[in-house]
Amino acid sequence: MWLIADDTYQEMRARLDLGLTVTDALQAEFAAQAAEARSDEQPRNMRVAGDVAEIDVVGLLTPKPDFWAWLFGYGNTTYEQIEAALAMAAADPEIKRVVFNVDSPGGQVDGLFECAGAIEAFSKPKSVRARLAASAAYVIAALGGKIEATNQAATFGSIGVVVTYFTDETKVEITSTQAPDKRPDPTTPEGQAKIREYLDALHDLMVDRIASGRKTTAEDVNTNFGRGAVVVAKEAKRRGMIDKIAGPQLRAVTIATPTEDATAADTVAGKTVAESSAATKPEAAPAGGAAQKKGKIMDLQTLKSEHPDTYAAAVKLGREEGHTAGLKEGADKERDRVTAHLIRGKASGAMDLAIESVEVGAEMTETLRAKYDTAKQNKDDQAARQRESDDAGAAVDGAATTPKAQDMADKVADLLYKDSGLAG
Question: What is the pLDDT of residues 80-120, one digit of tens each?
Fold first, then answer.
C-alpha cells in the first residue's frame, strides 16, 4: 500500500495505462544498479561535511530498491538507507548533528513505521530542509526536528490513507466461513466500512507519529494540517506544520571569524555568513577606540584560495540543488508533453496517434497538431453522418438509436482524461 501525493499517483496510473514495456534488459540494468548501491560502505543518500551528516529523503520511499520508481525516473530512497545512515551517524563521534534533505511525494506503508522509530530513537540534534514532504515523507519530516521550507513554493501535507479498487464483474471470490472479512466487497456499504476501518487504523498511526514529532495533538493534526490536502510553505507555517521558510539566496558573503563549534557546513548554511550590505555597514566605535572591522567582502576566488573546504562544500551543495531542480523541471516538462497529447487525442478521437506520440517521445509539433485537427474534423463529420442516419432510421420505423459501444482506446482515454484532473 502506498502513502503518496495524489498527483504522483495519478501520473503513475496514466503511465501504466499507456502500456509501459518492461524488458529483460531494463530489469537487468535495475538489478545491477541496486546491487552496486547495496555494496557501498556508506549509504548513497548520506554525505558528511565537517561534523554534519546530511541524509537525503528523495523520490519514492520504499522498503527495498523499487523497479517502478527507477523506471519512471522519480528517484528512490529506501527506508533501509535512511536507517543505515542514522546508525552510522549515531556511531560516529565526529558527527554532531543530522540534517534531512526531504524532496519526496511519499511512498509505501511497508517499512515506514520502522524507519519512523529509528528517527525517534536518534539522540543527536537533527533538523529538516524540505522542498516537498507529502504523505509518508511528511511523517519523516515531522519526526526529523525543526522543519525549514527551502522556498515559498515548498509543499507539505497529504496526510491520510487511500486505497483504490478496480472491480471486475466476472470475478467471484468466496472466503471461508469464519473469515467473511478477508475479502470485503468494495462495491457495498458493508465492504467499504470494513476497508475504511483498516485505513483509519493506519491513519491513526500516521497522525500519532506526526503529532509526536510536531509536539502537538492528534486532534490538531487531523483538524489543521490540511485534512489530506497539500499546502504551500506560507500556509504550512501558519498551521504549525513547519517552522520557517528559507530566505533568498545570498549573492555576496562575509566570512566572520568562526567559533569553536562552527563548521564548513554551518558556514554554507548561513550560520557564519552575512550579506555584503551588512558587512559594509558602518558600526559605532567602542568607547575610547576606532570601529572594529569584523569581516571582509569575499569573492569566489578568494573564498576558494583562503577557505578551500568551505568553497568545496558550497560547490557541492550548489550542484546537488541544481541536480534536484533539473530533475523536477524535466518531470514537469514530460508531464506537460504527455498531457497535451492525451487532451488532443481525446478531443480528436485519435488516441492511437496520442499513445504512439507519447511512447516515442514526440513533442507537440505543428505537423502533429494538423494530424489531430484532421482527425477531429473526420470524427465530427462521421458523427454528423451518424446522427443523420439515426434520425432517418427513427423517422422510418420509430426505432431508438443504439449508442455506439466504446472501444478500448476510448475507455483508456476517458480514464486518463478524468484522472488528469482536466475533465470539466
Answer: 999 999 999 999 999 999 999 999 999 889 999 999 999 99
CB 150 within 8 A of CB 325: no
**Whether pLDDT at 162 is above 50:** yes
Cell representation of residue 318: 550548489
Decide which of 3.40.50.300, 3.50.50.60, 3.90.226.10, 3.10.150.10 is the CATH code for 2-247. Answer: 3.90.226.10
pTM, full prediction = 0.54
- Say if residues 127 and 148 touch (Cβ distance below 8 Å): yes
State the Cα–Cα distance between residues 376 and 349, nearest whole angstrom. 6
- Which set of grid coordinates corresponds to residue 212? 509526536
- How high is the pLDDT of residue 308? 75
Mean pLDDT of the chain: 76
Locate all alpha helices (DSSP H) within 40-93, ordered by sequence: 67-72, 79-91
Q: How do strand 244-245 and strand 146-149 relate by DSSP bridges?
A: parallel
Q: Is 63 exposed, middle or buried (0-12, 13-18, 19+ CB in 10 A)?
A: middle
Cβ neighbours for 293, distance < 8 A, ≥ 6 positions apart: none
pLDDT at 269 over 80: no
Note the pLDDT tens digit of each residue in 379-410: 777 777 777 766 666 665 554 444 544 555 56
Q: Which three cell numbers stand for residue 37?
A: 548501491
Distances, alpha carbon 94 to alpha carbons 91, 101, 127, 380, in Å: 9, 20, 18, 71
What is the full DSSP assignment across 187-252? TSHHHHHHHHHHHHHHHHHHHHHHHHHHTS-HHHHHHHS-TT-EEEHHHHHHHTS-SEE--PPPSS
In whole angstroms, give the CA distance from residue 241 to residue 101: 16
